[in-house]
UniProtKB/TrEMBL annotation:
Belongs to the ABC transporter superfamily. Transmembrane segments: none annotated. InterPro entries: AAA+_ATPase, ABC_transporter-like_ATP-bd, ABC_transporter-like_CS, P-loop_NTPase. The keyword ATP-binding applies. It comes from Leuconostoc carnosum (strain JB16). Signal peptide: none annotated. This is ABC transporter ATP-binding protein. Residues 4-231 form the ABC transporter domain. The keyword Transport applies. One of its GO terms (molecular function) is ATP hydrolysis activity. PANTHER family: ABC TRANSPORTER, ATP-BINDING PROTEIN.
Length: 301
């Protein structure tokens, strides 16, 4: 049985359909990426899952219990960071953790949690949050999301404001918790970082789920592409198209896909007396795969 089951959820804002028959699951220990363009319904869906927003029809079940706007009993083992964390400017990081742990029967160990999220320095026990950088506030928000020793953590744009090292460390923290059985539902516009982390993807567009898949399954949309720099890129593009392949010129490189294999491309270009100066094979790109799926969905409307 899935840890989280969202089934046939509908939500209207006036005449606009914010959630249209939304259905997906999240299993224990899995990291699921909820991705789509701005306004697709990602934050609305996350708010419904965390009991912050009502919905018109359907059901949300977490750990065997129903979740609605008026029923929050199941949420004691769910953590979340949606949009920006609620930070009180005159409280320290430690005071925030104590505050958010007040209604929790078995909160996480404060010291251990501050170490995991890298807010364990002496200054963070004394300095007020009004003096925190955006990255510091984001790390504190993640610590707050983990205060309940949750089975499921909902994170909306958790990498906002973090420097590259902090993003790397956050990935490591999330992966280590997932290995211990904690599930994650994460939305982020940093698709290259999300690609390094998630096990499964849920694609949402115009308030509808258009695909759910493992990362391996999802990458099947992305055809193998070859990126070439040649002595005559324009001629290489035209030659590729004349062979029935997809070809574009992007930032001084020729992008080719649709050929049976790489040798076919090399033979055709060399045969036209065009010199290949560099060559790379590209596949398994989350951003490219997402754009392809969204474009296909928009055409089908």
């Amino acid at each position: 049985m899935a840890l989280l089951e969202v089934k046939n959820i509908d939500k209207n804002f006036g005449k606009k359909k914010a959630m249209d028959n939304i259905s997906f699951t999240v299993n224990a220990g899995h990291i699921v990426g909820l991705i789509g363009p701005n306004g697709a319904g990602k934050s609305t869906t996350m708010r419904a899952v965390t009991g912050l927003m009502s919905y018109s029809s359907g059901s949300i079940n977490f750990d065997g219990q129903s979740v609605t706007f008026n029923n929050h009993q199941a949420l004691d083992r769910m953590g979340n960071l949606i949009e920006y964390p609620s930070i009180y400017p005159n409280l320290t990081a430690l005071e925030h953790l104590k505050l958010y742990a007040m209604d929790t029967k078995q909160p996480a160990d404060f010291k251990e949690l501050m170490q995991k999220t890298q807010i364990d320095g002496d200054n963070f026990g004394k300095r007020k949050a009004k003096n925190f950088s955006l990255g510091m506030k984001q790390r504190l928000g993640i610590a707050i999301a983990l205060i309940r020793n949750p089975k499921l953590v909902i994170l909306d744009e958790p990498m906002n404001g973090l420097d590259p090292q902090s993003v790397h460390d956050l990935r490591g923290l999330i992966r280590s918790l997932a290995d211990e059985g904690v599930a994650f539902l994460i939305s982020s516009h940093l698709l290259d970082e999300l690609q390094k982390l998630v096990d499964d993807v849920v694609i949402i567009n115009h308030g509808k789920i258009i695909e759910t898949a493992t990362m391996t399954e999802f990458f099947s949309h992305d055809k193998v592409r070859w990126t070439l720099a040649t002595s005559n890129n324009d001629a290489a593009v035209q030659l590729s198209k004349s062979n029935g392949w997809d070809a574009t010129l992007d930032e001084g490189h020729v992008q080719v896909s649709g050929a049976e294999n790489l040798q076919q491309v090399i033979t055709a270009i060399n045969g036209a007396d065009i010199q290949i100066q560099s060559l790379n094979t590209v596949t398994g790109n989350l951003e490219k795969s997402l754009l392809d799926v969204l474009a296909s969905d928009d055409k089908g409307e």
